Amino acid sequence: MIKFLEYFINNSRLNYALLAFLLFLGVNAYMNIPKEMFPVVELDKISVRGYYGGASAANMDKMAVRDIEDAMSNISGIDKIEATIAPGAFTIILTLTDNANKINLLNKVKDAISLSKQYLPSDMLEPTATLIDKNKPLIRVSVSSKTLSKGDLNEIAQDVKSKLSKIQNIAEVGIWGASKEEVSIKVNSEAILAYGLNPSSVVSAISNLSYIFPIGNIEEKGGFAFISTVNGKTDAHEWEESILNIDDKYVRLGDLAEVEIIYPQTSTLATFNNNETLTLVLSKGEQGDALKLSKIVIAEVEKLQKSYKNVIFNTYKDSSIPIKKRLDTVISNLMFGLILVFLSMYILINLRIAFIVALGIPFSFIIGLLFIYYLGYSINIVSLLGALIVIGIVVDDAIVVSENIQRHIDEGMDIKEASIVGVKEMMLPVSLATLTTAAAFLPMFLMHGEIALFLILVPIVVVLILLGSLIESFFFLPLHAREVLKKSNNLVDWTGAQNFYEKLLSFNIHYKKTFLLTFLVLVPLLTVLTAKSMKFQFFPNFDGNNLYVSAKIDINIPREDTFALSKKIEAEIMKHGEEFSLKSISATTGYRRSLSGETEFNNNVFYITLELYDRKDTNFISEYINPILNFSFIFNDPDKRRDKKTYELAPRLQEIIEPFREKYNMLELGVIEDKAGLIRSDIQINLSGSEDVVLEASIKELEAALSKIEGVSNFSDNIKYGKMEYKIKINSYGESLGLSEASISKVLSDFFLDKRQSTTFNSGGVMEIKTRDLNKNKKATLFNFNISLNDGRYVKLTDVASIIKIRDYESINKLNGSIVKTVFANLDKRVITPEEVLEQLNPILEKIADIGINVNLLGEKEKSKQLKSDMKSSLILAMFLIFISLLFIFSKVKYVLMVMSVIPFSVLGALLGHKLLGIPLTMPSIIGILGLAGVVINDGIIMLDFLHGTHESKEFFTRAKHRLRPILITSITTFLGLFTLIFYATGQAVILQPIAISIGFGLIWGTVLNLLYLPTLYAMVNHIKPIR
């Protein structure tokens, strides 16, 4: 290793060539690495979807879901099975365990579905199983026109979708408000009766009107040919003129039914700025760069605008805009931190060493960036903030090495020799110091679930940049030192500070027993009292760019009425556009993200998205420094108009829309804020294991209690009742006539199910042919329906069967095979935390559990429990790794334990930092405290390594005061590197601000410990006396 190092230092041209090559690779990596707001935080999941139109949720559960769940429950590698069952459809989400083979599991799930198919209805399509893509929203494109028909606009939207889908790394393009063209045949059951026809025979004849499959081919020599049909008719008139052969009677289709070629009622309706539109929702894949893709999409839309003169295109909800602004902010914070570190070294050491150290930081980051790029990670808020966290730490290696080289030069050694010797001497201690820092972050790899996916980039970035720092300090820094350093007498004089420190330390050692006893009692006591006085929430509140209104009304309200109500609320919000700094507003009827965070499709729901302008700069750094450091030079950004943060505006928005709740008897109406992605709702309480009536009463009791707790923004449940269901029960008279439940159902489904009978082609591809009764949406049609018997007679449905009315739940939610009823709540965490809410609900929860109901707390409580478990194992491993690392330096265990004792005492500094800034403890705070262990220990190593082996007072104090400068310099540079994140975090960067607070303030207090407590403890153990 030493010879390799000498070879590099002696071959400067090779060294410079490698530096240039690394710089080129770094620029290339930065240009090509994906850039996004947050990393993907979703575990691998498999989605199983099934459809059977007309079935109630309860029937779907009995005839399909239960058997599929049973078949999957024995598959190893599935952590959780969640099912949502709605009328006519179900979705089963399988969450896989960490490191499971997802392709292998997908195949096993498909096999399980195939085995359960024998229990499904014969005309039900086999449920599909797919891996859930981890796509990210990119941009939305609205397509509207004042002159074109909806059908024409539909075709244009499909064409636009096709073109945008071809863009590389565009993973998905969905359309809200669109529908597919179909042949709608509305059968007149009264006409069928008048002609004396069998309804089933009529439907069978209709299903044979089109044939789209190949017939065959002829391979005659010299005349090869394919054989096919013309695939049915081309317009509605031709269809109506079709002659049907029904039971040897020839009847014109138009005499029995009305035929239309239509775009049926869509499942969703969309608006943009309160104007009806078709909305294309574009998502990118994991490897897509949001900044590049957005530019490509916008350029393509501009081309399309020129092609379609009668169409108005708008792009909005462009994720690249906030991503670029947030990344620019963090990058400028990095630059500012670099400047602060440089200035501190210039003031505390000298200009030449400051220059060398500052020059090494970018190359350390470039090396780290290369590792990150080739390992397949992205640049996002978390990875950049990880870099910001390490900026002050990464200079420690360079400071120690360059100072050692300077010391040898000042002692008269040749510059070239000093560069080699200086690095040799520091190679082991610097490597071990880096190892201890990495050891504190490495256990974060043991974390599980979505928390690990969200935070994994922090230890990755820290460790890789520290590795880059080692490479730079050992191979490239000596080259810079040879060119820059020289014998100098202009080092900052620390004599005064060292003498003051010597006196202070001597005073402590004079009263060492009293000092240590007071210290060992007071610090733990203050730590415990401070921790107990603080609130805990999983993530800090942060300011986003969006607010959302999620709404649900009675299930029996038609989609058109839901759409009209959505537009009214949208219009009311637009009246307050200036108050909210509204950039755009859009709405989707038929779709919403519920207050619990679940996706829901139904005719009685809608979702309004408010895109807001950026918040105005509130400090000098953001307003005047950042625009220079990110090279934008935009000092009065026109997009920065908003005065309040989104979580401050949310209560006001709720106040504006609240009157609509009572006026229209709405089931749910609440405001949702942007969240980090790990937690969908702050409070989630699952109840199971009892009768529905008992569970429903318990839910209502919990909601009554929530309504009285100040700070609860909104709450909801999943016990909404669905549409009325008519159950057909055949009687003995019907059975005596040869009818059965199956035969009656088969006839009725052809008229009431909007059932696909056949397919044909149009210009866009396959088009379905569906039948329904002309008057299917009238109850009288069902009650007066006539059933054909085998002998040609007709009998009224109500004569051969009874019709039972029931009303079941709108949807059924299941977890691992058990039906669960759930209460969800979101909080204003400035007022109350989830822990405090659950504490108030605890008496009710205990009472519910006492009557035999299973109570399961999810939401933030579940994540906190998981974090606590992960942190225990991570902390134990971190301490063990640090212990092993220290044994390389100190031969005696007592000295290792002395250094490690600084770690628990330094926690007080982290807690006081949160107190000082008025920030609650969060999950990132805990992660920061774990990282603090590796950072604060380095100064302890610097101190005790020099004191180690001294037993005389004079030598002890001489060595101790010589450690004052390096300890203060490394602590100050680390703190200044974190300075902007601690005091000037904005937007989503606030999420990781607590990590910086824990490390920064913990290190400041740790510096006091390493300068006073640790030498005093060493003096007592080794019987060192104070200076007289």
From TrEMBL:
Keywords: Membrane, Transmembrane, Transmembrane helix
UniProt xrefs under Gene3D superfamilies: Multidrug efflux transporter AcrB pore domain, Multidrug efflux transporter AcrB pore domain like, Multidrug efflux transporter AcrB TolC docking domain, DN and DC subdomains, Multidrug efflux transporter AcrB transmembrane domain
InterPro entries: AcrB_DN_DC_subdom, Acrflvin-R
Pfam families: ACR_tran
GO molecular function: xenobiotic transmembrane transporter activity
TM region(s), chain numbering: 330-349, 356-375, 381-405, 426-445, 451-477, 514-531, 873-890, 895-914, 926-947, 967-985, 991-1014
GO cellular component, one term: plasma membrane
Record PANTHER family: PTHR32063, RND SUPERFAMILY EFFLUX PUMP PERMEASE COMPONENT
Protein name stated in the entry: Acriflavin resistance protein
Species of provenance: hydrothermal vent metagenome
